[in-house]
């Protein structure tokens, strides 16, 4: 694993936690039932990699019950932030409580295997509600699903973060017109990119993923000052073996190519987005 000399602690901007089940059980209607992956295990992984900050993304299987996420954030002395799942039952007091607990974004899921609202007008109303709090909206979907959202919300004055490199398949020929559309959107000063999910982009192939470097580097070049990174620990709903998080970090460092870019992606950019 590459050791980095960075100013300030690196950020892992995409993780999930599950359990412990005796304290935070899943609802009967959970979309999926993962193995337990409590905060203690995440912190141990981060310590091993030298990661000082993290972002907990609310797991879809917990729906809008953020108890596990908020309890984990409360135990980190402000070093970790959260991204929530918001539904129509949550009022402004609920949003303020999430914000006070460390949440700084809302995730919109467009992937077919995950539940969630798909109507763009309703989702925009949610985005407008959280915008005064300084939150961002995390868009999780394939490129063909994300582009219409970016088109429809071109005038939305808040950070929109493209999750997992827009879930592109790096094992196939790129959709060049669609990729150019994404690059044009990423030129907007409020549009961000998460350089995560390379194992998913490589359809479960094992590290070191050299075939994904051209795509990741091209996306990074489109938003160098608005790119962030995450492991996606503990890697729910994946194809193939669970990737090694140290190798995921190594891949990101190789994508960056130099210390200044790694400093931006791993430290400076996430600090601007999450604080």
UniProtKB/TrEMBL annotation:
The keyword Lipid biosynthesis does not apply. GO terms for molecular function: hydrolase activity. Keywords: Hydrolase. Residues 11-274 form the Amidohydrolase-related domain. This is Amidohydrolase family protein. It comes from Massilia cellulosiltytica.
């Amino acid at each position: 694993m590459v050791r980095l000399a960075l100013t300030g602690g690196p950020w892992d901007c995409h993780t999930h936690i599950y359990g412990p089940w005796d304290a935070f059980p899943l609802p009967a209607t959970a979309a999926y039932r993962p193995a337990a992956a409590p905060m203690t295990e995440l912190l141990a992984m981060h310590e091993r990699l030298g990661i000082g900050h993290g972002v907990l993304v609310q797991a879809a299987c917990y729906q809008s019950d953020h108890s596990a996420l908020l309890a984990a954030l409360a135990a980190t002395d402000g070093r970790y932030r959260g991204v929530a799942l918001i539904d129509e039952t949550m009022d402004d007091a609920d949003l303020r409580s999430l914000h006070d607990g460390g949440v700084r974004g809302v995730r919109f899921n467009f992937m077919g295997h995950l539940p969630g609202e798909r109507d763009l007008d309703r989702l925009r109303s949610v985005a407008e509600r959280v915008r005064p709090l300084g939150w961002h909206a995390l868009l999780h979907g394939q490129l063909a699903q994300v582009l219409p959202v970016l088109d429809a919300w071109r005038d939305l004055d808040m950070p929109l973060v493209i999750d997992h490199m827009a879930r592109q398949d790096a094992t196939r020929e790129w959709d060049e017109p669609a990729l150019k559309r994404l690059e044009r959107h990423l030129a907007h000063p409020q549009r961000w990119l998460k350089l995560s999910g390379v194992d998913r982009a490589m359809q479960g192939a094992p590290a070191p993923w050299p075939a994904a470097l051209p795509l990741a580097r091209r996306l990074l070049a489109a938003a160098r000052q608005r790119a962030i990174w995450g492991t996606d620990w503990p890697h729910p709903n994946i194809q193939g073996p669970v990737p090694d998080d140290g190798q995921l970090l190594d891949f990101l460092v190789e994508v960056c190519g130099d210390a200044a870019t790694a400093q931006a992606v791993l430290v400076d950019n996430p600090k601007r987005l999450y604080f």
